[in-house]
Amino acid sequence: MLSKSVRAAALLFPGLLAGAFGYGAVNVLYAFREVPLDVRFTFHTALMRVNGPVMQALMGLAVLSTLILATRSKSWPRWIAASASALTFLSFLVTRFGNVPINQQIKRWAVGTPPSDYADILRRWELFHFTRTGCALLAFLLVIAVVVGSTRSHDDTRAPRPAAYNPSAEIPATAR
Hints:
- The chain is mainly α.
- It contains four helices and no strands.
- Helix 3 packs antiparallel against helix 4 (118-157).
């Protein structure tokens, strides 16, 4: 049986990660497209400076919590939780080797001039962002499946409750 704290952490951190990436994909990204480039680059740089430590910590906690969930699970839930952990780690790798290098370029563009192919580079950043968002969301859904499955099997193994005593059930229907 998985402890409540393991289940809670495994739901909380991947859920926050998927939510943060999802918010960025649904709201921030489209807002970036609506503002002038200099505003986008300045805001993008400021956002990444603030997001950097927060998202790294959140990704680490999401990987760790799903890994603990996998090691404490048995049978098929172990493999699903391990897959969630791998997907969460993949979102970190995509961020580190896809988004972060482009963020460094955007930081230079905010104080200088973007290259002629900046639109292609921004599209690549968005592709990386949608990829990491998809990985985080799928990981969260897998964790939900493990936690709900473990909770359901725990409920099924409890001793059945005795039926409540109903004195009228002992009286034949014709005598009532």
